[in-house]
Amino acid sequence: MSSGIILLDEHLLIVGLNPAAENILGISQHRSQGASLLQLVDDEPEMRDILARVVETGDHYANEMRLAPTEVHNDERIVDCRVSPVEAGDACLLVEITDVTRRTQISRENALLIQHGAGRQMIRQLAHEIKNPLGGIRGAAQLLERQLDDSELHEYTDVVISETDRLAALVDTLLGPGGPPNKQPVNVHELLEYVIRLIEAEDQRNLIIRREYDPGLPSIDLDRDQIVQAFLNLVRNAIAALDGQGTLTLRSRAVTNFTIGDTRHRVIATIEIEDDGPGIPAAMQDSVFYPLVTSRPDGTGLGLPAAQELLSRHGGLIEFESRPGRTVFFIRIPLDQISGQSNE
Predict the structure, then answer these.
(1) Which of 236, 217, 214 is closest to 307 using CA atoms?
(2) What's domain 4-99's superfamily in CATH?
(3) Quick one: which of 161, 160, 132, 157 has its CA closest to 146?
(4) How far apart are CA 128 and CA 168, in angstroms?
(5) Torsion of Cα atoms, 179 then 199 then 306 then 273, to 10°
(6) Could you give the 3-state DSSP secondary structure of residue 62?
(7) What is the DSSP letter of 15?
(8) Between 3.30.70.100, 3.30.565.10, 3.40.640.10, 3.90.550.10, what CATH number should domain 184-342 receive?
(9) What is the pLDDT of residue 332?
(10) Given the DSSP bridges, would you call strands 184-186 and 218-222 parallel, antiparallel or unpaired?
(11) Where are the domains of the chain?
(12) Which of 99, 89, 98 is closest to 33 using CA atoms?
């Protein structure tokens, strides 16, 4: 069975479990005898509530819940939990736990891809509306410049023209596709270090930066400029959330048998950008990749959708999970085309 089956006595102590439950809980059948299930799941409040209800009412209960990371399992997991009353020797409760983390992640990835498609369409419509007046503004500034005899006044028209050109270039970037990525074998750790140097030049004196790189990660065929821009957008978002104080963790690892959209990849690279800030407000978590969505008064709301667009050009995806004290953005990059070199 892929579902974990656990038998509990009246004190919620384990009297038996199957191999699937051993894997989910990270404990052997021998060591589990007489152990507290609640302690093994870090006293998960929902689990405690469901067990108490079944003991009190004798009814069947089911719920989806999150299990915190443990010494055995480094990542948070999402499980379906069903609890039923039973009479089997010392056992009075039967707990069935099914790990649905990957199924939930695939569903969320598909939602992110749909969101990205809608966001891209919104950006294109917005960019189209912006491009039309920009051309008029630039033309008017050029005509005005010809009428000005004072060369000092030309500085102002030069500013208007240069800023109009800058906005037009930004709009062109947002419109995409901007041609296919110019892919070359690159070391993602070198790109991350380059981004860190840029950030440190901005005088983030109270920021602690931790690195947890996988030295065995191979070089990947990427467009250096596009991926640097995506990393920079995500790192700057994390630093803005930290407000200059806190810990930024950059992590890399390889993940096997991972599905992005409709494509299953044998192995991908995952780059994690983690901060210990206040987290993304719950009301915004379903829309952060839409353009113009931001919680900061000085934010544009374009950083995340632009980063998602740049990753999509490489067949990748950006996901995240967030709660107060821990926000992680996961950058998923397929390793289908690699140079065979390692990042050591």
Answers:
(1) 236
(2) PAS domain (3.30.450.20)
(3) 157
(4) 10
(5) 110
(6) strand
(7) E
(8) 3.30.565.10
(9) 92
(10) antiparallel
(11) 4-99, 103-175, 184-342
(12) 89
Binned at pLDDT 50, 70 and 90, residue 97 comes out as confident
> CA torsion 222→112→45→27, rounded to 10°?
-40
Which of 4-8, 126-130, 170-174 has the weakest average pLDDT? 170-174
Quote helix, strand, coil % in the chain, to nearest 5.
40, 30, 30
The DSSP annotation for 88-135 comes to ETTEEEEEEEEE-HHHHHHHHHHHHHHHHHHHHHHHHHHHHHHHHHHH
Q: What's the chain's average pLDDT?
A: 79
Judged against a pLDDT cut of 50, whether residue 343 lies above it is answered with no
The one-character DSSP state at 44 is -
Shortest CA distance to 309 belongs to which of 178, 200, 130?
178
Asked whether residue 153 carries a pLDDT value surpassing 50, the answer given is yes
pLDDT (tens digit per residue) in 248-258: 999 999 988 88
Q: Cα dihedral sign for 306, 286, 297, 276?
A: negative
